[in-house]
Design brief:
Strand content: 35-45%
Largest sheet: 9 strands, antiparallel
CATH class: Mainly Beta
Number of helices: 1
Number of strands: 9
CATH architecture: Beta Barrel
Radius of gyration: 15 Å
Shape: globular
Number of domains: 1
Distance between the termini: 28 Å
Order of helices and strands: EHEEEEEEEE
Structural class: mainly beta
CATH topology: Lipocalin
Oligomer: single chain
Length: about 140
């Protein structure tokens, strides 16, 4: 039996790459629709290591060329050792603005090494409980 072991220099290093964005309201009057249903937009983002981060836990999120804006430019994402995520777009940390629409009041967040996804769920104004999933491509 052969085992492959990956050693990353930082916790954030494993999450560098391009991500599709799936999103939807999971409760409330707008469920199960998402912002893509209402606005007809498509979202994709890039995650890169935050320059000069000595902690090895921070990434910067940028919107992929040719796609609509999902996160504000240069949103910082921290991968916490407890399995949660922290967003800072300069507005209301840890609650990011999504799709230039509203601040998502993050109630829970997580990441998964095995399937390369990052998730956040919370209240999106008075529109309902909303979840997005970033899935590595």
């Amino acid at each position: 039996m052969t085992q492959r072991i990956l050693v990353y220099p930082s916790i954030a290093h494993a999450f560098i790459g391009t991500y599709s964005v799936s999103e939807q309201f999971v409760a409330g009057p707008n469920a199960p629709s998402g912002l893509t249903d209402f606005f007809g937009e498509s979202y994709q983002v890039e995650l890169a290591l935050l320059p000069n981060d000595d902690t090895g836990t921070k990434l910067v999120i940028t919107n992929s060329d040719g796609f609509d804006i999902y996160f504000l430019p240069n949103t910082e994402l921290t991968i916490n050792e407890d399995g949660s995520l922290w967003f800072d777009d300069g507005n209301d940390p840890p609650n990011p603005v999504v799709a230039l629409f509203r601040i998502l009041d993050v109630e829970s967040s997580s990441y998964n090494w095995m399937n390369g996804d990052l998730r956040a769920t919370g209240q999106l104004g008075n529109f309902g409980t909303y979840r997005f999933i970033l899935t590595k491509m």
